[in-house]
Amino acid sequence: MRLAKVIGQVVATIRSDRLGMDKLALIAFIDQSGQQEPAVAVAVDKLGAGEGEWVLVVGGSSARMSVDSAGQSPVDLSVVGIIDAVTSDKSTWFQKNQQR
């Protein structure tokens, strides 16, 4: 699992049948110091995370299984959790509902 921040959404109304119609979140990964990385990715989001929220994402076969238990969906990343707080060494990297 990796930490990421939802920075937007991707709208694609015409899709592969195997992809389904779940929400697509535009995400940026969070590095080891709690900062947003510059590269972006798209993750399937069955949980409905909103822009600005921190999330847990999984990749590879774990991502496919989270969308389709048979693992046949063409998915590389999937949101599997919406984060409430991240702390490390007595410091808080992220606290939901507080501006950073």
Choose one word for the global shape. Answer: elongated
Helix coverage percent? under 10%
The overall average pLDDT, rounded, is 88
Read across the widest sheet, the strand sequence of neighbours is: 1-2-3-5-4
Secondary-structure content class:
mainly beta
Q: Which residue ranges are poorly predicted, with pLDDT under 50 across at least 5 consecutive positions?
A: none
Output the helix-strand order. EEEEHEEE
Instruction: Tally the helices.
Output: 1
Indicate the radius of gyration in whole angstroms: 14 Å
Largest sheet: 5 strands, mixed, barrel
Measured between the Cα atoms of the first and last residue, the distance is 22 Å
The share of residues in extended strands comes to: over 45%
Total DSSP E strands: 7
How would you describe this protein?
The protein has one helix spanning 60-67; strands at residues 2-10, 23-30, 36-45, 54-59, 77-82, 85-88, 91-95. The relative contact order is 0.25. The model has no long low-confidence stretch (mean pLDDT 88). By secondary structure, the protein is mainly beta. Strand 6 and strand 7 (91-95) form a beta hairpin. A five-stranded mixed barrel has the order 1-2-3-5-4. Strands 6-7 form a two-stranded antiparallel sheet.
